[in-house]
Specification:
By secondary structure, the chain is mainly alpha-helical. It has a single domain, classed as HPT domain (Four Helix Bundle (Hemerythrin (Met), subunit A)), CATH 1.20.120.
Length: about 90
């Protein structure tokens, strides 16, 4: 998820510049990262944006961005909380 801020920036840049290919590529990459985390809300938002980017429907893609931003913020918060909980596995202790 370290790449997600950079990918969100590329999504915003793709929208601002009308770069459908770059927008679609960044949305697809972000979707792949999210899929690995089993985060359905963020995954759905990323899929929606990618579909709209593929169709080169920039107004609809722009309208989908706030939903993706909000889902990513919630996911980031959940991941931070998860990382704060100490593991019971002795192999994970420092």
């Amino acid at each position: 998820m370290q790449e997600s801020p950079r990918l969100l920036e590329k999504i915003e840049l793709g929208l601002a510049e009308g770069d459908g290919e770059g927008l679609e590529r960044a949305a697809h990459s972000l979707k792949g990262q999210i899929r690995c985390l089993a985060a359905p809300e963020a995954l759905s938002a990323a899929e929606k944006l990618e579909e709209r980017a593929r169709a080169r429907d920039f107004p609809a893609a722009a309208a989908a961005l706030p939903e993706l931003d909000a889902a990513m913020a919630r996911l980031d918060s959940q991941l931070q909380k998860f990382c704060e909980v100490p593991s019971e596995d002795p192999a994970c202790r420092r």
